[in-house]
Amino acid sequence: MMQAKIDALCAGDLVEAVSFCDFPMTVWLAERELRFVRPSDMIGFLQDVQQLRHSAGITSSEAEILSIEIPRRGLFRVWVRWLHKDAAGALLDHADMIYHCRESRKRLRVEAAEVLKFSLPGVAGIPVPRRQII
Question: Which DSSP string corresponds to 62-129?
Answer without folding.
Answer: EEEEEEEPPPBTTEEEEEEEEEEE-TT--EEEEEEEEEEEEEETTEEEEEEEEEEE-S-GGGGG----
